[in-house]
């Protein structure tokens, strides 16, 4: 068990192209590996399936709330943040039980109700429209024409955002993805304030005239006499957008690349669409678009998996490494679309397990169905060595993916 601090590169092209060797090296050091990251500083990764699961399920010793762990570096940063960011960051992913449970129960019912009200037809329609756009484009870029827009369009439709406002809303959201530095956080403020003001307006309208959409369901959500406040709804809607759009984008693009790089598997899938549900889970495991969870802060000095931790120290579950752990998966570096069982951690585990897992799976399944019908001979339009990944930490994200066929 090592207390050393390492400097694994988790953002460069070599790592993003093939992360498996780095994860193997990290797991060879141990289930807990301390690494230095830009901005964030020192962080300990749970690298194995066992360590990642324990960290996420053992909620008492660890907190997602910085204020409970007195981490001075982040505490100061948080105090300096503008009010709008504080409002949006007070979401359930950054709160522990019992407040987390309260918010999750209120949103769970409202969110799940959408599943039964014609959502599949809407996703199919959106996927088909976007695929036609891709086929008619000059560059054939899957990221730009399909992967980015599909999850945004779906969540906008679920929320019930008026179609005429969607472009404007999506442009504001696009600005929000760059939070790579403290300066960039301040740069996004104008867009953020517009989103908050716009959302407050929509919430007010839905209070007066509820419709059959998710914002109305959130406004009306009630558990034992308890309801969500307007601030909580704004922050919840923002979380649904932020957590649900980029993540699925990278599953669609990264999953398509994985299929193109594993021709024999792709042909099997295209010949037998009944493989789709297990293929989606295997692509989730193999790509692991969300490579690591949000930080868990040590609440009290403690021992975890044989190592001592001080109050305020940060740990993260390195989901992508857990998903390639030989102790949990046979031949983890290989894509095996009919892999059973496949208890991957791509959606996390424990109390913060992804709320939108069912939606992400459905979007990917429907997208793949449309891809195999509309582009049965799909191929990469560039050489594999020309494929570029973003440098974004924590996400396995393609910059573009030009297709033909
Ligand atoms: C491929 C797509 C997706 C992946 C890989 C993914 C992954 C994750 C992961 C790993 C977490 C846990 C983070 C942590 O514990 O720190 C999470 C939480 C969450 N996700 Fe997803 N997600 C995806 C799609 C979605 C979608 C489509 C939505 C909704 C529209 C969504 C909404 C959420 C929410 C609200 C949480 C917080 C849950 C809580 O704190 O109780 N996600 N997701």
Tell me, briefly, the overall form.
globular
Oligomer: single chain
- State the helix count: 18
Amount of helix:
40-55%
| Contiguous uncertain segments of 5+ residues | none
The chain-level mean pLDDT equals: 91
Short description, anyone?
By secondary structure, the protein is of the alpha+beta class. It is built from 18 helices and ten strands. The N and C termini lie far apart (51 Å).
Descriptive labels:
two-stranded antiparallel ribbon, single chain, Cytochrome p450, six-stranded mixed beta sheet, binds protoporphyrin IX containing FE, globular, 52% helix, 405 residues, 10 strands, alpha+beta
Describe this entry's structure for a reader.
The protein is α+β, with helices and mostly antiparallel strands and 405 residues long. It has one domain (5-404): Cytochrome p450 (Orthogonal Bundle). It has helices at residues 13-17, 20-29, 49-57, 72-80, 83-89, 99-116, 119-136, 142-147, 149-159, 166-176, 182-187, 189-208, 214-220, 230-261, 263-271, 276-287, 319-322, 357-374; strands spanning 5-6, 32-37, 41-46, 62-63, 296-298, 302-304, 307-309, 314-317, 379-380, 403-404. The chain has a six-stranded mixed beta sheet with strand order 1-2-3-8-5-4. Helix 9 packs antiparallel against helix 14 (230-261) and helix 12 packs across helix 13. Protoporphyrin IX containing FE binds next to helix 14 and helix 18. The site of protoporphyrin IX containing FE (HEM) has 25 residues, from helix 14 and helix 18.
């Amino acid at each position: 068990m090592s207390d050393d601090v390492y400097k694994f590169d988790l953002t460069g092209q070599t790592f993003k192209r093939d992360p498996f060797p780095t994860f193997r090296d990290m797991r060879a050091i141990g289930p807990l590996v301390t690494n230095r990251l830009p901005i964030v500083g020192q962080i300990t990764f749970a690298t194995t399936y066992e360590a990642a699961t324990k960290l996420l399920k053992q909620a008492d010793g660890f907190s997602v709330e910085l204020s409970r762990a007195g981490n001075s570096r982040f505490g100061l940063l948080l105090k300096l943040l503008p009010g709008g960011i504080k409002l949006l960051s007070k979401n359930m992913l950054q709160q522990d039980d019992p407040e987390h449970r309260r918010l999750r129960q209120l949103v769970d019912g409202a969110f799940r109700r959408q599943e039964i009200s014609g959502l599949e037809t809407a996703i199919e329609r959106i996927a088909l429209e976007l695929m036609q756009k891709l086929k008619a484009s000059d560059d054939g870029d899957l990221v730009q024409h399909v992967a980015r827009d599909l999850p945004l369009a779906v969540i906008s439709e679920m929320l019930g955002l008026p179609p005429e406002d969607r472009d404007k809303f999506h442009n504001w959201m696009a600005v929000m993805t760059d939070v790579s530095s403290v300066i960039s956080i301040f740069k996004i403020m104008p867009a953020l304030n517009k989103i908050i003001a716009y959302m407050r307006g929509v919430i007010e309208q839905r209070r007066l005239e509820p419709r059959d959409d998710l914002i109305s369901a959130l406004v009306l959500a009630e558990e034992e006499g308890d309801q969500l406040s307007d601030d909580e709804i704004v922050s919840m809607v923002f979380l649904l957008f932020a957590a649900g759009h980029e993540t699925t984008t990278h599953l669609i693009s990264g999953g398509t690349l994985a299929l193109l790089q594993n021709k024999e598997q792709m042909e099997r899938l295209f010949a037998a669409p009944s493989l789709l549900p297990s293929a989606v889970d295997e692509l989730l495991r193999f790509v692991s678009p969300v490579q690591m969870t949000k930080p868990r802060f040590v609440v009290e000095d403690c021992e975890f998996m044989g190592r001592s931790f001080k109050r305020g120290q940060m740990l993260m579950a390195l989901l992508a490494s857990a998903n390639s752990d030989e102790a949990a998966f046979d031949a983890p570096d290989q894509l095996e679309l009919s892999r059973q069982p496949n208890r991957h951690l791509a959606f996390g585990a424990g109390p913060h397990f992804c709320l939108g897992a069912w939606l992400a799976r459905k979007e990917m399944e429907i997208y793949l169905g449309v891809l195999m019908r509309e582009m049965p001979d799909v191929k990469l339009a560039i050489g594999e060595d020309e494929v570029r990944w973003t440098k974004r930490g924590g996400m396995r994200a393609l910059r573009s993916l030009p297709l033909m066929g």
